[in-house]
Design brief:
- The structure holds two protein chains of two kinds.
- By secondary structure, chain A is mostly beta strands.
- Chain A is 12% helix and 41% strand.
- Chain A is built from three helices and twelve strands; from the N terminus they run H-H-E-H-E-E-E-E-E-E-E-E-E-E-E.
- In chain A, the strands form two sheets. In chain A, strands 3, 4, 5, 6, 7, 8, 9, 10, 11 and 12 form a ten-stranded mixed β-sheet that branches. Chain A has a two-stranded antiparallel sheet with strand order 1-2.
- The longest helix of chain A is centred in the N-terminal third of the chain and has 13 residues.
- Chain B is an alpha+beta fold.
- Chain B has seven helices and eleven strands.
- In chain B, the strands form two sheets. In chain B, strands 1, 2, 3, 4, 5, 6, 7, 10 and 11 form a nine-stranded mixed β-sheet that branches. A two-stranded antiparallel sheet of chain B has the order 8-9.
- The chains are: A mainly beta, B alpha+beta.
- Strand 7 of chain A pairs antiparallel with strand 9 of chain B, so a sheet runs across the interface.
């Protein structure tokens, strides 16, 4: 446990303390987010140290029928002291998961594959529409609103972050109906600080 | 995101008067304002021969007599294309409080990856709005139309898995009832601002027609 965790999010500290006390508990939810009904799951991989990275507001817009390329969005926060790097993404519900950035230059858009994404300590890193996204290919079923997509982010320190993303209507991005977080905008309005 | 937030607010305000929605725009629309380029005079389109998602011919004639919003993309585009279409659905929705249903612009999705797009195109566009139309064809004809609307697309070489990179214009093209290009809009399209712009554009056009 370190000071930056205390400063970043008190409720996460409490949760983490409870986790330490419980010893083998695998999932940890930040109470501030859970209270807002947000999907938040930060889990530790078996046998690995607790990850300092938390995922919030993870979602997958419901895809048009027959479409084989979906996207997952989320906001990630690194509560640790050191920059962590996402080196791989997986989902048991898709044939492949990769990180991409949509780039529009001179009015032309293309997607750039990202082999790794850095998560510096402190400010949130957003995977948001029109920016970075996790591209999910070859869905193993047709997912509908309300379904949960399990994602696993592998970090450079060997830990993994388990993320539960909710399938939602495209015009129903999480964070729209409350002031908890303003996605992709300046700053992170973290009420639990 | 501002766009999403405003959309949410607009939806909450759906039962309020139109002026309230406009008022919201006036206070929050500054930063997100619509970016428009208007060719002067409106640019004519070349002849082209495409098909809509029902398999019916789609030519210059299909564009006459109504306003059209054309978006270029491909159905396996996971991020930008679906959000532009979702954005356009909201624009049309907001316009529906300003103009009669038969005067609403028709939205066409120009699918530039026919190999993967053709089969799913109808279901794809209807996912966003029952009235949206998908348009595609062979690359020769697609190129004529896309270049005609000052757009661009390029499909990359397939990799070992058969996947390939696709580049395409992000703009939404506004085509008038005269089948000429009247404007090019750069996303994101703030729905209220865009709806207001298009409604005004329509009135200006009608007035100009009367004066001629």
């Amino acid at each position: 446990m370190n000071v930056s965790v205390v400063k970043s999010c008190l409720s996460c500290l409490i949760g983490a303390a409870a986790l330490t006390a419980a010893g083998s508990q695998s999932a940890l939810a930040c109470e501030a987010h859970a209270a807002n009904g947000q999907s938040l799951q930060t889990a530790q991989a078996q046998g690995h140290a607790m990850s300092s990275v938390m995922a919030m507001d993870a979602w997958v817009p419901v895809a048009p029928p027959g479409v084989k390329a979906h996207a997952a969005y989320m906001v990630l926060m690194n509560h640790g002291k050191e920059t962590r790097t996402i080196t791989a993404v997986q989902s048991p519900q898709y044939g492949s998961a990769t990180m991409h950035a949509s780039i529009t230059k001179d009015g032309v858009t293309h997607m750039q594959h990202l082999a790794a994404v850095d998560l510096p300590p402190g400010p949130p890193v957003g995977f948001v529409p029109g920016g970075m996204h996790i591209m999910l290919m070859k869905p193993k079923a047709a997912y509908k609103e309300g379904d949960t997509i399990d994602l696993s982010l592998t970090l450079d320190d060997g830990t993994t972050v388990a993320v539960k993303a909710t399938v939602r209507a495209r015009n129903d991005a999480p964070g729209m109906n409350h002031d908890h977080m303003n996605h992709g905008a300046m700053g992170h309005d973290h009420k639990g600080s | 995101m501002t766009m999403h937030r405003r959309r949410a607010l607009s939806r909450l305000a759906a039962t309020l008067a139109v002026t309230c929605v406009l008022g919201l725009t006036a206070t929050t629309g500054q930063a997100a304002g619509l970016r428009v380029v208007e060719p002067d005079p409106p640019a004519a389109l070349p002849e082209f021969s495409l098909k809509d998602h029902r398999g019916k011919p789609f030519t210059v004639e299909s564009l006459k007599g109504h306003w059209t919003l054309a978006s270029i993309g491909f159905t396996s585009c996971p991020d930008v294309c679906p959000f532009v279409l979702s954005n356009l659905a909201e624009v049309v929705n907001q316009m529906s409080v300003r103009v009669r249903p038969d005067n609403l612009p028709k939205v066409i999705f120009v699918a530039i990856d026919p190999k993967r797009d053709t089969e799913v195109l109808g279901d794809y566009v209807k996912h966003f709005d029952e009235n949206f139309m998908g348009v595609t064809g062979d690359h020769k004809e697609l190129a004529k139309f896309v270049e005609g609307i000052d757009g661009f697309y390029r499909l990359g070489k397939p990799d070992k898995d058969g996947d390939y990179e696709v580049q395409h214009s992000a703009s939404v093209i506004v085509i008038g009832p005269d089948a000429r290009i009247h404007a090019k809009l750069s996303p994101p399209l703030p729905p209220a601002d865009t709806a207001e712009y298009l409604a005004r554009k329509r009135i200006t056009y009608i007035r100009a027609q009367r004066n001629n």
